[in-house]
Specification:
By secondary structure, this protein is an all-alpha fold. The chain is about 95% helix and about 0% strand. It starts with a helix and ends with a helix.
Length: about 55
């Protein structure tokens, strides 16, 4: 294999690794968003319960 074929193979591997990192990052971001939505909804429920107890 000559140098140019080796160089293009290395570039393809770098691009594939970059895409894998991007996809993993997107997956982590979606999981964090889901977790934050869950926390926000739980806080909202607890806040409403606390307010209803104080108003009585």
């Amino acid at each position: 294999m000559d140098d140019s074929a080796q160089g293009s193979t290395e570039y393809l591997l770098l691009v594939a690794m970059g895409l894998a990192v991007i996809l993993v990052g997107i997956g982590v971001a979606l999981q964090l968003r889901s977790l934050s939505d869950l926390v926000v909804s739980r806080v909202r429920v607890e806040r409403n319960n606390t307010l209803s107890m104080l108003v009585r």
